[in-house]
Amino acid sequence: MNKKVLKRMICIVIAAALLLISAGCGGKTDGEKTSENQTDKATGNNTSALAQTTAETTTKKIDASPDDKLIALTFDDGPYSPVTERILDVLEKNGARATFFVVGNRVASYKSSVERAAKLGCEIGSHTYTHQNLTKVGVDGIRSQLEKTNDAVSKITGHDITVLRPPEGAVNDTVRANVNYPLVLWSVDSKDWKYRNAEKDYNNVVNNVFDGCIVLMHDLYPATADAVTKFVPELVAKGYKFVTFSELMELRGVKLENGVKYFSAKPKNQAGSGETTADKAVSSTAAATTATTAAASTTAAVAKTGTTSTDIDANVDYVE
User: Fold this and answer.
1) What is the pLDDT of residues 28-73, one digit of tens each?
2) pTM, 2 dp
3) Active-site residues: which are they?
4) Nearest 5°: phi and psi at 272?
């Protein structure tokens, strides 16, 4: 074998070796890509399963009928975990639900409470982003307050907000025309914002509740949680079922409309079923006086909860 032939054979062997090495590396890369794709798919499946579980948890219908004695328990101005979590404990223990009208700029700070409430089947509504009286801002201000709150909540729950409680109960024609939600007022005011006394809160609720009522409370005050701990099991024992606002309206056959105020949903055999007019109306002067008194009484709560003065609801029955 001459040198030229030997040289050629060596070159062929080297070239073949290089091709094999290259093919081997390429195969590994394809394998890695396949593995990555499988990981992506697995992650996607896990995410989908989690979303499905959350949806099943939050949309499960409560065991209640239109003929049951129903109460829609509602809380404003939260979340505030030291109080909200205690209320959720009571609701979970008693198979009860409530609607929490949250202030949007508080949501991120107490994310876990919002998430837990939603998973327990409670309803998360809007109380604006900064507890803003919507009658005092223009159309752009109204939309901004509502959109920012919805964004904050939907990031946690995966669901858009569907109901609104206007701060101070304040509504005018501009508000009605520019909100994409029903307006949830109330028919029983615990006045927990005023007394911050568990016994008074308890009495104000149990002495005034009726089938189809909407109860106003605030998950800011420890006394509120104390009162809830006492009256929820007592009223359940008397045959009442605690449902969300939307569940109450659905069970009573009330079709919700944006910009319309709702105060209660009494049984159809009683007067005032699904009332959309004020059960209790106060004059603008009386409302202003109530609001001033309520604002003056919030100093201690502000110090304890870290809220600003605008986080505290004036809680007038109705402000036109």
Assistant:
1) 333 333 232 332 333 333 333 333 444 344 557 788 899 999 999 9
2) 0.72
3) 76, 218
4) 85, 20
Domain residue ranges of the chain, discontinuous segments joined by +: 69-311
Q: What would the pLDDT profile of 112-135 be if each residue is shown by its tens digit?
A: 999 999 999 999 999 999 999 999
Q: Answer whether the bond into residue 79 is a cis peptide, omega within 30°.
A: yes
- Quote the CA–CA distance of 126 and 184 in Å, as a whole number: 10
* CATH classification code of 69-311: 3.20.20.370
Encode the chain in three state secondary structure.
CCHHHHHHHHHHHHHHHHHHHHHHHHHHHHHHHHHHHHHHHHHHHHHHHHHHHHHHHHHCCCCCCCCCEEEEEEEECCCCHHHHHHHHHHHHHCCCCCEEEECHHHHHHHHHHHHHHHHCCCEEEECCCCCCCHHHCCHHHHHHHHHHHHHHHHHHHCCCCCCECCHHHECCHHHHHHCCCCEECCCEECCHHHHCCHHHHHHHHHCCCCCCEEEEEECCCHHHHHHHHHHHHHHHHCCEEEECHHHHHHHCCCCCCCCCEECECCCCCCCCCCCCCCCCCCCHHHHHHHHHHHHHCCHHHHHHHCCCHHHCCCCCCCEC
Read off the tokens for 100.
Answer: 């929490």
Give the pLDDT of residue 9.
63
Determine which of 226-230, 256-260, 313-317 has the lowest per-residue pLDDT on average: 313-317
Two structure tokens written together for 24? 């081997």
- Angstrom distance (rounded) from CA 316 to CA 281: 9
**Contact partners, residue 214, CB within 8 Å, separation at least 6:** 72, 74, 184, 185, 186, 187, 188, 245, 248, 262, 263, 264
